[in-house]
């Protein structure tokens, strides 16, 4: 079994969407029989100083600094290790309200950005921004973010991009993203199921 800490980062505006996505991720992995268990670890408020105004081809966009977000998530894992002496929690997923980018104004982060992950020491930090997926249609908003979370978790467990009808098939725009089904394809699922740490626990002690 593998646990992934989930943190909500930013202001209150998308917290309902965050929890719907979180519940859906929990149910999804249970339903497909993968022993991946999300654990909610709280909201991490980001100080206003971490929000930068960055010029992109779509005009000025507000973004969190990549370094600040990664540091806050890494800090959360270290804090949990020290407070509850739990060393088995080594993966954390942060869902941010605003996009995340480096302060370099020459790169078009906003448009290309889907999610990112970095390894710091033995810890794995994943980040996905909710804002680029925003829609008036709440179901669609939740679904888009949910698929983004599956995509990043897929990478975490070694999946590459895929050409099938699959969340591992990266889109060129949000319309294409909406056409992806909210699941891994059979071939990606098989790769995940073959991983020893993701095999479901027996229901009864043997
Ligand atoms: Zn990807
Ligand atoms: Zn696939």
UniProtKB/TrEMBL annotation:
Biological processes annotated in GO: proteolysis
Superkingdom, natural source: Archaea
Cofactor: Zn(2+)
SUPFAM superfamilies xref list: Metalloproteases ('zincins'), catalytic domain
Alphabetized UniProt keyword annotations: Hydrolase, Metal-binding, Metalloprotease, Protease, Zinc
GO molecular function: metallopeptidase activity; zinc ion binding
Pfam families: Peptidase_M54 (PF07998)
Name by which UniProt lists this protein: Zinc metallopeptidase
Lineage of producing organism: Archaea, Methanobacteriati, Methanobacteriota, Thermococci, Thermococcales
